[in-house]
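Appendix C: a fully annotated inverse folding record. The material below is reproduced so that readers can follow the format used throughout the book. The structure is listed first as tokens, followed by the designed sequence.
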């Protein structure tokens, strides 16, 4: 299992299509949420994804400070429903954090987590930093990973 990390300009047309397709399949169709997925942040992002049998089955978007939040951030985290329950989400988030720590020198990473996934993110060292709020009609909570600089 090898996650791929690519800047927007390095994505092939097929990869960009498949990224937008998986995001729409999960966020728009599965979650029945109408929102503007193409928000202008993709061009400055590093896109992390995993392919199996030529198809993207897991994806996240990594952003530098000031793009979405003041610190680094991870968003648009998705795993195809047929691929859930085998640890892909955990592995993807661990690799995303490691990429940001090593490649970008991140010390803080913020996410806007769907509330029902709070425990999942707490298991990978994210801590709640906001009250619950609605984002696109779905309950969310702001969470932060902070690197222990004593290590």
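Designed amino acids, in order:
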């Amino acid at each position: 299992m090898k996650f791929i990390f690519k800047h927007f300009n390095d994505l092939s047309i097929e990869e960009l299509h498949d990224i937008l397709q998986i995001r729409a399949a999960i966020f728009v169709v599965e979650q029945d949420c109408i929102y503007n997925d193409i928000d202008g942040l993709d061009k400055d992002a590093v896109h992390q994804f995993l392919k199996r049998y030529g198809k993207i089955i897991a994806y996240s978007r990594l952003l530098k400070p000031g793009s979405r939040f003041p610190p680094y951030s991870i968003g648009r985290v998705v795993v195809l429903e047929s691929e859930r329950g085998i640890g892909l989400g955990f592995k993807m988030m661990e690799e995303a954090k490691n990429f940001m720590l090593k490649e970008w020198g991140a010390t803080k990473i913020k996410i806007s987590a769907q509330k029902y996934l709070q425990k999942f993110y707490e298991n990978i060292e994210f801590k709640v930093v906001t009250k619950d709020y609605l984002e696109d009609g779905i309950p969310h909570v702001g969470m932060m990973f902070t690197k222990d600089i004593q290590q």
